[in-house]
Specification:
Elements lengths: L1 E4 L5 E5 L12 H9 L8 H10 L10 H10 L2 E7 L3 H12 L6 E2 L4 H5 L7 E6 L2 E6 L2 E3 L3 H4 L6 E5 L3
Parallel strand pairs: 2-7, 3-4
Antiparallel strand pairs: 1-2, 3-8, 5-6, 5-8, 6-7
Helix pairs in contact: 1-2
Length: 162
């Protein structure tokens, strides 16, 4: 576990848990889904990979929100909001609106800032530019998580299996 203090004084705690399965690449959507699931509803990395493959994610290739959104929702993740005005944030807002979802929109912020507010408690998947990552109780569950702390948040999903 590593602790990083952002330029705004927010402590970012990261862990190396959830490293890709050996031989896999471009699997952030798989890792994020696997790492956000609580122990009581254990799903293996392979099962997460298979669910995303059935939705259209090719092995060892990244995928877009059009592939992972429905899988995430089926697994109990709900969109908390969109953030900022970047092209990717606008595209996510448009995607949600076109799919009949009313999603709150918030001022732009970095992952480090979100860790100090939205992401303190609970299980989340955070979408940044061309990447998603799990955050559990304020900890980025991601190899190289320190480098992600300064990224702009585009959308946040919360694990909420209602």
């Amino acid at each position: 576990m590593k602790v990083y203090t952002s330029n705004k004084g927010i402590k970012v705690v990261t862990t190396e848990a959830g490293v890709s399965k050996e031989g896999r690449k471009n699997d952030c959507t798989v890792r994020a889904l696997f790492n956000v699931m609580p122990d009581s509803r254990f799903v293996s990395y392979e099962e997460c990979e298979q669910m995303l493959a059935r939705a259209g994610r090719p092995l060892n290739e990244g995928c877009t929100i059009h592939v992972w959104h429905n899988v995430y929702q089926n697994m109990g993740l709900r969109v908390v909001g969109t953030f900022g005005t970047t092209a990717d944030a606008r595209a996510k807002r448009s995607f949600y609106r076109n799919n009949g979802l009313t999603v709150p929109h918030y001022k732009g912020m970095t992952v480090a800032t979100a860790l100090g507010s939205f992401l303190k408690h609970g299980r989340y998947v955070v979408a940044v530019d061309r990447h998603v990552m799990a955050v559990v109780d304020g900890k980025i569950i991601e190899k190289g998580g320190l480098s992600r702390a300064g990224k702009r948040v585009h959308a946040i999903y919360k694990y909420d299996p209602a």
